[in-house]
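Can you give me the bound-state structure? Components:
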Amino acid sequence: MSRRPSTRVDTACAVTSRPTAVGREWSSTTRVPTVVLPAARHPATAAHVACSHSATRRGVASTGTLPEPSATAVSAAPTVNVAAPVSPISIVTPGTLTAPAAPRGVLGRLPAVIDQDVVQRVLTRAVRTGADFAEVYAEDKRSTALSFDDGKVEQVTSGRDRGAGIRVVKGDTTGFAHTSDLSEAGLVAAAEAAAAAAAQGDGGTRTIALTRGPERRVSPVEQYPDDVAKADKVALLLRMDDAARGAGAAIVQVSASYADSRKRIMVANTDGVLVSDEQVRTLARVTAVADGDSGMQTGYQSNGLAKGFELFRELDVDEMGREAARIALTKLKARPAPSGAMPVVIKQGSGGVLFHEACGHGLEADIIAKGGSVYRGKIGELVASPLVTLVDDGTMAGEWGAIGYDDEGHPSQYNVLIENGVLTDYMWDYLRARNEGHARSGNGRRQSYQHLPMVRMTNTYVLNGSEEPDDIVRATESGVYVAKLGGGSVNTATGDFVFGMTEAYLIENGQITEQLREGNLIGNGPAVLRDIDLLGNDFAMGSPGTCGKDGQGVPVGDGQPTLRVKSLTIGGTAS
Amino acid sequence: MSAASAVSAASGSEQLLEIADRVVAQAKSGEAVEAFVSRDWETDVRVYEGEVEHFVSAESAGIGIRVIRDGRTGFAYAGTLDPAAIAEVLAEARDNVEFGTPDEWAGLAEPDGVAVVEQELWSDALATFPTARKIELAKELEQLTLAADARVRAEESNYADGAVEMAVATTTGIRRHGRENGCYLSVGTLADDGDETQTGFGFTVGRSPAQFDPGKAARDAADRATRLLGATKPASKRVTVVLDPFVTAMFLEVIASTLNGEAVAKGRSLFKDRLGDQVANPLVTLVDDPTNPLAYTATDLDGEGLAARRNALLEGGVLRRFVHNSYSARRLGAASTGNAVRGGFKGTPGVGCMALQLQPGSRDQAALVADVADGVLIQEAQGLHSGVNPISGDFSVGAAGLTITNGTLGAPIREFTIASTLQRMLLDVVEVGNDVDWLPMSAAGVSLVIADVTMSGA
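Here's the bound-state model for the whole set.
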């Protein structure tokens, strides 16, 4: 059970999923389906297949079973069993399970996950058989998740995940083992397993001197969720439910959830790196179902930041409830979406997923290295409209994908990927940077200590253009205005991608008119990047996401100003 | 490590049951307690260009404890079986109870007298399979794939296996334990033709490596990557679609979510008031049967420790039954159908189908295609998670496949969507094929013809 992603079969299966009940899961790349081993006594796990295919069904909030609950902080499993529609939350909690009573809020004073001298001995052991490189990644995560559905607080969940993953690299082979036993004996056993897996070698002794890296507090936390009474968290859910139900008699069901997580990581390697980071994330979301003559419709809102409970000083959860209800109610009168290619205007902060899928995954150096991306060999070339400057930024304070250090101990960075339409660089992790003699970019991330790191995005966004957003709509004779996107997925080798629109309207004679029912849009990444012909000046970040790749989910952010794509195919049923 | 140690610990799941029993024994008066304990092993080998790219070997274990008192539910888990941690998990689950809303239907499963259908879920041959052979198998699959077609590159070739032992015990008298293992080989491919690149994959699964068919995995991977080379974007129109078995299985998994008892109980199923109604073409008979040993997801127990069993959901197009766990059943005045599913110790049981199968027809895919005047054979679908809403029924997915003209397969097409509603698609079923494919999914695949679907392209 609980077969982890490393037991699935997939290839560059990149899935991005939004931590949400309705429609905010993304998935990208669907090359090889995720086959979960039969060794899952419970079909919940046995059933996942294919990253995008099976992904989460939307709208069925639930009590459920998180197929890969350990996953990310507050997130949906990228591959979620269809059969068990679920609340994608997983985590987090106010400290409870054996938390060492530590002073909070000051990273440097948190107890180390593992003592430095122990780490040093373990690393020495890991390379004793002649490996090139060894790394210890230790993690201690607490999480809390509250689910509210059908008028009731259904469940409060507390979780604790603690362990270490040890990676040993020899030549082109990586050996990896993980353990939840953080004693020196447990770590040494894992180190030897990883070393044996990496190869049998000549032997030798290396002295490893660890130098503790500086603290990096990219996202300062004012109020640790651990310090907040559970009753206060419950109160948020009640408010969202009240607000949504108060919005109209046609609202027949509401589910809401809250999740927080606090993860401390420590990374040390034979290059002498020793760093720690603390990542706190807090999230709330709500889904409303409206029932009318045309059947049921859903509306959804989600907000989360790499912050503590102070998130709710700025975030109006009542407004979230009302907004979810409004979307569901207005959709009752929505008409079928059109079918065919037409101009599409995407509202600020709702379309970052477009870039995440249309080019983000294709700019990951591991995919590039295997020739699995349409952007291979295109550095220095014009790959997008000159209006587009695309950045991946792990340092963006408080944003969902912000990190102090990546999961290989490299400081997070601000990386320009596309500048005025010209491809400037890919994203890198340790292995790919080592192999290519390139600098690392702070994009080596992993879901948990049970996973190998790989190249992943952080916060990916497009910088402002100069148009007034209203002018962009006015300049569009007829087309579609997308106010909210759901999930998506991409095949990085072909560039073909889809993403779902969960709130969209017709544009007629330069005016936003009737609301449309849901559907997917389909396009080709390189073509769509070139077809961006108007870019607004109203940049905004979007709602929190979980990006899935090769079965692993990590928290990511995205953002963009209002923009227009000259031609995208809308997959509706109306001609 | 790996599965081998599971063999020496043949009584491992009994030990887990003892841990669960000890937790349950600590229940206080008025408390219902469930302890779910599991331990698993995995091996994961990836080969690229003849070399091992990575080798992962790991074991992990954990416990999840559910406490219900006065109709309130609390849950906590930890990824360790350390006794001190277990005590804290129980304390935390109890604390969490305080914040739940009383729910008259809350409760644990109770023994229902349904006999467990014994299944062969454990292979000693796999548990003792040598590591060196695992690496060789992945290398061999890569070679077979490259040999299948000169245009094909292998992006990765994988061998993986896993084993799990589990136990669940409750204050209501459930005490079950067991173990299970399995393995697979898979390969991801790229095919190049000029500037164009397409992708594919192939896999083969088994309870032991003896059941592998690497040749088929290699052929599938090469075929999937090459068959779309030269594909173009079609014009928009209404068509009849023939779904490949793999795509049908994905479609059935979506349909399953509308038959979920929990969704029904909470008013989120589009079929909530339709029991006994004709909701699909009479050709549609859909059964969920995890006791069928042919099913990849065959199993003996559900996530609450009840016997897994056969349930007919649609018969002759008539909606006969929703699937339930003990909670959704209690709410709707029904009995659990043995469909509690859980993702391991970190979650509580949800509801889900386990091994769906559409009753097959009598003709193969070629015969189905021959009857289609103007249509598309859908070989790939993308974005079922983002373009299908099982509450409203709106269905819109990205697709790729081959055109069908006057019963003949033609040119490959891609970058288009197919759209309809789930309600209409069930009624618009034209025929079910006889080519059942027991895929590693919660539904078996079979070719399926559906009329009047909107194709959106250029």
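A couple of observations. Chain B has two domains: 2-225, 231-458. The longest strand of chain B covers residues 51-69.
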